[in-house]
Amino acid sequence: MASKRNGDQSSQDVINQLAVILRTAQIHDPGNIAVTTAIERFISLINTLLEAERSISLELRGEFLYIDGTRIRYSLEYILNLNFLIREFKKREIGNIIFKDKIKPDDLRLFLKAFITSGFSDTPYEKLLDVMKESPRIGIARLKKVKEGEAADIRKIIKKTYFNAVSYTKGVMKKIKSGEKVNIKKAKRIVETMVDQLLEDEQILLSMTAIKDYDEYTYHHSVNVSILSVALGQRVGLSKKVLTELGLAALFHDIGKIEIPYEVLNKPSNFTDDEWRIIRKHPIWGVRAILGLRGFESTTLRSSIVAFEHHMNYDFSGYPRIREYTGLDFFSRLVSLADQYDAMTSSRVYSRLSMPPDKALSIMMENAGTQLDPLLFKFFINMVGVFPVGTVVVLDTKEVGLVYESDAVFTDRPRVLIIIDRKGKRVQGPVVTLTEKDEEGEYLRSIVKTLDLNKYKINLAEYLL
Amino acid sequence: METFEDIKEAKDILQTLIKAKKTLRMYLPNNPIYAKTIEDAYARFKSFFDYRDTFVINITHNSISYDSKQIYYNPEKEDNLALFFFKDGLREITFKKGLLQEELEDFLKVIALDFDREAVDNDIVTLFWEKDFQNIKYIVDEAYLVDLDGEDYESKAEKEVKDKVSDFDELMKAYADGFKEEDVKTVSIVPVTDGDLQMLAGEMEKDSYTKVEKLAAILFEILYQSEGKVELEDTVSFLKDSIKFSMHRGDLNIVLNIIKKAEKIFEDPLLTENAKEHIKMLLLYPGTEEMIGLFAELLDSGIEWDEKVFKEFLEFLDKNAVAPLVKFLGELKTVHARKSVIEALVVLGKMDIQALARGLDDRRWFVVRNIIYILKKIGDRRAIEYLLRTVRHGDIRVRKEVIRALGELGGREVIQTLGESLDDPDVQVRVLSAKALGSSGSEAAKKIILEKISDKMFKEKEFEEKREFYEVLSKWKDTEVFDFLVRALEKKSFFGRAKNYENRTCAAFCLGLLGNKDALPILYKHKESNNKLLREFSYTAIKRIEYGQ
Fold this sequence. Notes:
The complex is a heterodimer of chains A (465) and B (549). Chain A has 465 residues and is α+β, with helices and mostly antiparallel strands.
């Protein structure tokens, strides 16, 4: 593809137009003008691209679609079509569609026919493959399952990124406290790596945020909020560069806490009024710390605003109280969601018991529209899933599992790591996908209820690290 | 295994990169050498990719290798390309077939940055990352990100958290409890709709404005809540930074809004007196030398501001801005910028005439002339004492300007100086001085002009100068002048007759300007003069008196 900008545009067009033909063909007869027009448009687009590329592949890897190996980023212009394609690919176990040479209308008609009929089949991929064997110009491949070894390697790399970030945050906070100079370039690099990993495989880094039993809550919380914010930012279609700004702002959102005396911050019992007064100062101290760190520049601008506003609440019922309301910054609203979620699901010094993720979500849902931005909350719940990573679930198969990865499309059907098998025996695996169906088209496993992991002292780190 | 030829080509590519790194630093993008450097580098890569798919270089502290063969080595710290990449964690760079010229240009622009000298906020890896190259990939050593003296945080944290093993009995209890009853979980799926996406797009558009004002508003809020001197000082210092940041970016409107807000809260009775003292300092900040320097720089860059905003900004400046504006007036490079600063000083200068007048001592003639012009425009008579000092300035352009200014300002103290300037070595200054005296219309001025014209040396002047003097005399339409002119017209001379005729001609011309009909008989008489010049001017004067032409 000629240039990056053209590439982005072409990816968007391919997604939109392919989704349009598939949707139209599911409703109308193949000879209907709506279908034929959509086919013509798609052929014109794909053949123009094929002139330069010879072959084009549209591949599903994990929760993302890739065109010729380049990941298609979420964008508001085609987010619904993108989700539609991912869902349809998954339903049929399609991993890849390859367009070759010059596509003719008959090739596409054949593909549409195979695609639609396979949707009703118990073995959709086989059905699709059987028909598409006849087509020399449109090839398909089955959805690949990540091999265990590969998955372990990726997890190791991502784990390293996570702990690097926590270690850096710890260092920064210590340095600021002792008045030392802080290298903000490193912070950018750390956030960039997190952004890359979230773009590549959102789930693993998100799963790192589910483990909440670390002693050094503040540092882990900062990193978790950064990861959750970037993941949410990605869902609302922010560009890579803006995601970095968001990630940095989120990483430093609680930096004002360095000013809170240790004995107050780590007090195991409830705060007194005076202590609350101190705690409520940390957004203001945050602004001072950030601006003191780097002075006034574009990165510190947003970070300072977020540090000040992250407890103010959507309806300004939080703190600090201000005289003139001008509306919360978009970043602040994003970070507030991530902050609340992570705080509620963490065991902190003054609140030793963390809340199960699904319970936290249901409370957040009640707060959407008052404390939290209701629109962004919708995207948030779609990102973490109805059963977020780390939720302990009871399955209808008499198994107990841990939500291991959420599903971008089927938010109530995540991937689950079985920790107690159907015989009641403690195990560590396998990881099952709740979207899997049996020959009759019934789901193999469904969630019956969730359990409070604190109540049963289940240590997530044992399973997720 | 690569051949000797491959290694040679790899070395050539690397040398091209080194050369490009230097060239791009030296020339502007519109320079042909700049463009040619990029084209040459791209041609090298293209030729390399004719037979290969990738060009991969491995980087160590002092060397760069291609296919395990060292193709670059430099043990020095300076100009070391390997170290340049290595220090930010880059360990391998891969250029892929399909590399676009625009990608290569972006790559070269990044490596051409002088990270030591320029205030670059990002390291090389971040800059590469932001470019999001499709055909240039790199491997980075992330160990760089963690402090070397730091602990092995990962192992420590992992051990700590894993040590808290799940309790087997509790787990089994969970299992038992889990199936006590069929508590089917009702899930709330909240699908994102088209309407949500539209709303989100709207929210994001609303959010796209610059954030400086927002942060400034927060800082004002913090100001109310600041406790103690240090907090107040810090907050005001950040507010100053917000003004400076906006001025840097040419956002005069934002600067203005921040100052307006400061002025508004200054009036707020809820604000402590101490905080008000700090606000006062903030209000003076835009007029400091630092800020006016930035303002002047922007003006020089040709920036165009909304006229209303520009004027409003000037109105907000205090007298402390006068001296810096005067200073930068002499340093500006463009006429546009100087005009704007002059305009600013016309508005502000009246607040501190003394500071403005210091510019009259500047060694650059144009600065002095500009200041005189500004003082004239301000029209404050306090300026006269300073202006009088420049009447003998070495540059005629300055002297001309000051005479004009003094003429406009008028006053008794000016007349004598203007009279003295009638003897200026330059004719233009002399004429301007005469005109200035004429403009004053005073008896003293008339006396000076009459004396000057009566001087026996006066007739030796050029005709045009004499005519100008007589024209000035016509401002006084009284008998004394009339009689003087009649006498001058009738005056005969045996010596220097030609010059005398010129004088008489000027007198005839001036009588015409006076418009007194009593002059007609004498003018008719001289209409028949032998002297052509006198004849013509007498005729013209008659017509002017009779027909007002």
